[in-house]
Amino acid sequence: MILDRDLIVDGVRLAYRRTAGSTGETLVFLHGTPSHSHIWRNVIPPVEAAGHGVLAYDLLGYGASERPPNRDTSVEAQADLLEEVLAQQEIRRCALIAHDIGGAVAQIFATRHPDRVERLVLIDSVSYDSWPSSTWREIIRDHLADHAAMPQAEFEAMLTRQLAMTVADPARMTGETLEAYLAPHRTPMGRASFFEHQVRHYDSAPTQRVAPLLKTLAVPTKIVWGAGDRWQPLAYAPRLADDIPGAELSIIPGAGHFPMEDDPARITEEVLTFLNPPRG
Asked: Mapping DSSP to helix (H, G, I), strand (E, B) and coil, where does residue 124 land?
């Protein structure tokens, strides 16, 4: 497991990992949906081996973190909680490495607290009006209770189909990898939590609100995108790169929405090269 302990912050329990590095910079990894910090398992170790300090945690309502029934787990609430986590861990400034809805959390946090962010990496991030899909919008509007009540086997089949769409090569989302993504949802509470803590908050209003503020960001930024992303269209990548001053853009061929599964070595290379650009 990539996460190895728990912390209590703002009255809730979060599963997390914290390692010290030699560079003086802490990298904070933020996952998306429907995932958890397992998605970083092939990226964090080589980043740590390169000397970088790391903080990774499962968002509230996700993975091994607590799933409180009456707690807001929207991206804006997750950005507020990130501030609490950093304060508790005594991290004054950090680099944010964020994927999917974690990218929304990072955009919100970076525009609210520009003095707290040293660098920003957005990987296949939700942005603007890019989410949710029309299918999920209809489910949230008209059928959320019905979906939350579906039999466990039907739910797991639906989630398996969704996860298969996150990779360019479907063979990468099978076996132990697929099991790891399904594991947090393999109980009635896990199924209910998926709809209550994740799907219910699929809402582009926060990213549309933050969009005009992206041009104010003055931190070095890297945008990384899988060329075959079927969830977040590639057209949003250059739009983000254009709106964030000086942002770099890398497109990864042969990768989908979870490029950390399709090509973890390339993602690691992109992150480390951005943090330690070659001289000359």
From this structure: coil
Q: Which two tokens stand for residue 192?
A: 């209910």
pLDDT tens readout for residues 115-132:
999 999 999 999 999 999
Paired tokens of 273: 């090269």
Beta carbons of 103 and 123 less than 8 angstroms apart = yes
Tokens of 135: 């299918």
Contacts 24+ apart (CB under 8 A), 243-249: 243/211, 243/214, 243/215, 244/120, 244/214, 244/215, 244/217, 245/215, 245/217, 245/218, 246/220, 246/221, 247/221, 247/222, 247/223, 248/221, 248/222, 248/223, 248/274, 249/222, 249/223, 249/224, 249/225
* Cβ atoms 15, 6 nearer than 8 A: yes
Q: Are 14 and 6 in contact (CB under 8 A)?
A: yes
The residue whose two tokens read 């609210």 is 112
pTM of the model: 0.96
Strand partners, 252: 226
- pLDDT, tens digit, for every residue of 231-247? 999 999 999 999 999 99
Q: Which amino acid is at 71?
A: R
One-letter amino acid identity for 136? Answer: W
155: phi then psi, degrees, rounded to nearest 5: -60, -45
